[in-house]
Amino acid sequence: MNNMKKNLFDLSSRVAIITGGTGLLGQQHAEAIASAGGIPVLADICLEGVDPQGRVWKERFGEQACAIETDITNPESVKNLLTEVLARYGRVDILVNNAANNPKMEKTSDVEFSRLENFPLNQWEADIAVGLTGAFLCSQIIGSEMARRRRGVIVNVASDLAVIAPDQRLYRQPGLPAEQQPVKPVTYSVVKTGLIGLTRYLATYWADDGVRVNAISPGGVYNNQPEAFVQRLTNLIPLGRMANADEYQAAIIYLCSDASSYMTGTNLVIDGGRSCW
Questions:
Q1: pTM of the model
Q2: CB-based burial of residue 111 (10 Å sphere; 0-12 exposed, 13-18 middle, 19+ buried)?
Q3: Beta strands 152-157 and 15-19: pairing type?
Q4: Domain for residue 99, yes or no?
């Protein structure tokens, strides 16, 4: 690869806000951006255990990276996030809408609440608020700043369940009657599908303002799930395994960099082939 092509993936000095930044994939996104020379800002409602001054943090995310406590469901909190980023760095170039509620149904003991017939309204509202309204607010506030400067990138983190329905057989537990079997909650599919719609809307809305907007739909990531669940899921994936946590990093760099300069309004599906079947 010659230097010109390498430079297409260069994120040097670009400032990237990542919501849900302290979560499993949020940290992976931040690490990817830092590896390409960018400056990740990990925005999260909980910063417990986060140490931006620590050696491990600096080695992983870079000397200039920071973490900012943010409630993305609160417009004032998002505005404060933007204000702090601009005061610290003078610019914002990238927004990764990564935050979401994602209940691990294969581990829960409270199985009945997840079923559609019993799903609580307050849980619906909470999941929509974080996963979809939060992405809208961050895009509205932070994206508008990028549009004002006529340059920027938004990446919405959706899911393979934005393009296919959840296979509820994955979550079945032996010995339970049908009406008590756990399922992937309705909100997860609704939120992730909604993010694809938001992606298309923003991509065309800001096309003349230099802001590109794309989505990524990752498949399941191995994170010490029960072996029975892992086996069921891998049977649905042509590549025969779940993803490792770092296998989406190259896609994040691609979507955030000039390498994807002619790409907007697109959903990049990376699911080991699951949605092909």
A1: 0.94
A2: middle
A3: unpaired
A4: yes
CATH of the domain at 186: 3.40.50.720
The C-alpha atoms of residue 44 and residue 20 are separated, in whole angstroms, by 5
Number of domains in the chain: 1
In a domain, 57, yes or no: yes
pLDDT per residue as tens, the chain (277 positions): 566 566 999 999 999 999 999 999 999 999 999 999 999 999 999 998 899 999 999 999 999 999 999 999 999 999 999 999 999 999 999 999 999 997 655 444 555 789 999 999 999 999 999 999 999 999 999 999 999 999 999 999 999 999 999 999 999 999 999 999 999 999 999 999 999 999 999 999 999 999 999 999 999 999 999 999 999 999 999 999 999 999 999 999 999 999 999 999 999 999 999 999 8
The domain in which residue 58 lies consists of 11-271
Residues contacting 218, CB < 8 A, separation 6+: 25, 157, 159, 160, 243, 248, 270, 271
Instruction: Calculate the CA dihedral of residues 209, 94, 244, 259 and round it to 10 degrees.
Output: 50
- Which token pair is 7? 């430079």
